From TrEMBL:
It is found in: Cell outer membrane. GO terms for molecular function: porin activity. This is Porin. The keyword Lyase does not apply. The keyword Disulfide bond does not apply. It is a multi-pass membrane protein. Keywords: Membrane, Signal. Residues 1-23 form the signal peptide. It comes from Pantoea phytobeneficialis.
Amino acid sequence: MMKRSLLAAAMLPLLAALCPVQAAEIYNKDGNKLDLNGKIKVSHMFSDDSNNDGDASSNLQGGFTGETKISDKLTGYGSWSYQFSLHNSEGGSDAQNGNATRLGYAGLKYGELGSIDYGRNFGLVYDVMSNTDMLPFFGSDSDYNDVFLVGRSTGLLTWRNTGFFGLVDGLNVAAQYEGKNDRTGSTDQIIRANGDGFALSASYAFDFGLSFVGAFASLDRTDAQNNLSRGHGDKAQHWAASVKYDANQIYLAAAYDETLNATPISGGFANKAQNFEAVAQYQFLSGFRPSIAYISSKGKDIENIGDADIIKYTAIGAYYYFNVNMSLFAEYRINMLKDNNPLGLATDDVMALGLVYQF
């Protein structure tokens, strides 16, 4: 998942050096600009659960963002990002697993009217969930890609406006439409389908570091989804809200959301789910950034089960920033699910260690 900038302002030169690099400018002339960005993350997990033990997530992410000045008020832009898995063997049957287009969209921005773009982009529900998507390794458990505008999705028409048409500083609004993406085959493919739908989001940020954001999404479900053993209904819906404080080297965020027929579980979807995420971090000037978080998702009215925990854990970890390009991370996930839980989910703890180079 995408990690937000870790420091809001450069209070001291050392503090400025700790901010993650956003891009390397490779061209800027005559109103045309092109930035290159990339990140190599190598990591290893340790657990008694074989599915969470070993190298399963090392990857290379790379892409570019460009813009062109068309007139005084009109700007064109585009962005593309791809992920290559680093843990697969050469020429093996799994050589393509983990390789995917993360983002790819193009659009226009006109003055205070805002921007509009189309392509593979983040669903607006992620405007809320991104506030807690800050953990060193884990987290983002409620952010399912290609599932009802929660994470990255395909075929999104997105309009964004910052400052509410120039009238209210700090107030941002957005609207989004996604057309039908019908998928058949395995249950995993069917889960990542969707019918026509939309999302809305709004946020307000105070100048002292406090901000609020809310989002709503509603999409039609496909016939194949309603034929799965769990989760039935014409609509998949999502309500989400979060609060964040990011100032004075302190980062605090919490998010709460509810879904209807939209949270994937074994056999399909939970008819209803209640999700909560919270994270607290502090940035020391030495480069050390400890982190603690709590993540939970509880399914309601699940067929043949009733209520059941889907996700529940506490994560304790830290980043260490050597400089602007290099960082080290470690995190321990304390699984709080009960043994022999109704959904048959793993209950083992997991430790993750990793190193990141980015530019």
